[in-house]
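quick one
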Amino acid sequence: MAPKAKADALVQKSPAEFFAENKNIAGFDNPGKCLYTTIRELVENALDAAESIGELPAIEITIEEVSKARLNRIRGVEQHDRLDEQLYQDFETEEAKKKRLAKEAREQEKLKKLIEKHGEGSKEAEAKRKELAAAAGAAKPGAAMRGNLFYKVTVKDNGAGMPHKDIPNMLGRVLSGTKYGVKQTRGKFGLGAKMALIWSKMTTGLPFEIISATPRSSSRSHYRLDIDIHKNEPAIHLEELLPNPDGWHGSSLSLTIEGSWSSYRSYILRYLRQIAVITPYAQFAFTYKAEDDKNSVFVGFRRRTDVMPDPPALTKHHPSSVDLELIKRLLRATAAKTLTAFLQKEFDRVDRSLAARVVEEMQAGVEGDMSPKDLDEKQIVRLHQLLHEIRFGDPSGKHLSPAGEYNLRLGVMKELGPDLIATHQGDVRVFEGHAFIVEAAVSVGGKNVKPGINVHRYANRIPLLFEGGSDVITKTALRRINWSAYKINQATDQVGVFVSIVSTKIPFKGAGKEYIGDDVVEMVAAVKAAIQGCCLQLKSKIMRAIAAREQKQRKKTLSKYIPDVANAIYSVLERMAGTAAGDGAAAGAGGGGEEAGPAAKRRRTEGAGVGPRGGLRDERGLLPAVAAREVTAATLASRLSEYVERIDTDMALEYQVQQGLAAGEAKAPLYLMPLSGRHAHGPEVHTSTCVVKLLTGYT
Ligand SMILES: Nc1ncnc2c1ncn2[C@@H]1O[C@H](COP(=O)(O)OP(=O)(O)OP(=O)(O)O)[C@@H](O)[C@H]1O
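structure w/ adenosine-5'-triphosphate:
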């Protein structure tokens, strides 16, 4: 008989337990990704903290390798000598070892042959070498473990710091933070730093080390704290106040975690490079301290501007964005005494008269001067329905803080140095009652840019590096833009597409904040419009560049033939000059063969006048000058070169004029000089925007 199934026991989990068990939801997938996400969360907190007090961010990021032996010393664990080697993952039998070594020898032989065939340093040899290095690592027992090491991660900022008493809850309680309001911030969920702490707890067991000071504080808070995952509560190991003699403000947060620098190094550096693009007013100093110093890395991203965008402002909930629960929460928390005042005070775009009209519409005994706390369940439901049915004005978007076209352009120029760049900032748009702005930059060329469309995504000025395939920005750039219409070759041009979305609500898919879904139609349209705005500007630049290139090529081609043409013409002229009296055939050939005979010869030899720009012929005619060696092949070549040069300038000018006319603006040089009493002026030309006085001379 089958055993009787036991009813599943009821278990309750704290939010900390939930996220510890499902850490991939928050971007903590594997040790390498955990190292990356830890840095990301701490850097974004640092930027938010500096910008919140209008301070130009200066952020130091340090990753320090911690060997297992050192970690054990820190944790007070004694050195462990193995008793039974066979128990361990990295144990290898003699036979397996022999097999592995034989295989490695065979592969080395193949590499030798490739070097003989293609040469040392060739693409083929290098590819094989890489393959061997990867295979050698993976083939050894226990390899899966070996890439992962332990790292002490420290991020220090010059931001707002944290109030002493709030630090344990801010950093030791999952889902607690100061960024839940309707405001554009990099952080949102009150989760990131705590996830890093949970990861640290799961892998090294070491606590958070925090030093923080608020502006003008005479002391620095020093905490060593941990999180009780079961209770979702901070566990404080050390709490002290240190003196702050130099008035420093900011925070320094340290964690020791397991990670994999080797596999996520490129992501970490790419992330920093991209955050430097969108935040050129910030300064980042990144140090990787390896146990073996020759593997250490330092990368600095200097501040390129002191112009910081206006900080985002806290705004009110838009009526169409609230759900039933939120309305109840607002009703419970409000200080407003009347329902009309409640609507006016708690919601965006609701003034006194609109609030009164909404109350009127609620009917069923609801009065404007009743206390909002007296609304019963049915009345609240009615209010919720009305807030979603009534047409309210759109949020203004003034509370948002886009990077700005200036910063975006500067950042791209600084990091990529492209040949061409265009930027565009879209209008404020709205989805689900939240304002958003999309900005874009599209660049062509530059250093380290691969051929094709290279998409860089930003949300609330955070670079998004993962899950690009599903993101609204990637999908729009790759599928919804007809690049060839803008003279851009999608496959071969080195195109950088930078799109930044800022909003009080970014529709991220998941708490890891890695990508924005492609299902918000308003966002799809705004992203497309922003990219197209850049492309339109680029198109005219590209067409101008193509015309200039073609012109250069034309000039090069013409110039190439000048020596041959000059020699050919000159040899004809020489013959004509030497045999002018009787060589009708030669003269006919030299004149193109369409006119022959003595009269035509006379016209040619006597010349048809002087060229308008001081040509080759003088009053005696060309042939006597040739006969006297006053005109040589070199003279002809030099005159032809001048002509090609002049045609080039004329064409360029004509092109410029046409371009100007095409763009609806005729261009002419304008000279400005200060007027003095000595200047006499004659007639005046009045236009809609200015008066032009024509100078007639000095008095
Ligand atoms: N470097 C810092 N300076 C000042 N305050 C900080 C700093 N780091 C964290 N905080 C405070 O701690 C809170 C919690 O941070 P945490 O990273 O856990 O979540 P968050 O940034 O609010 O949201 P998210 O999970 O989306 O990143 C923040 O809201 C902020 O108030």
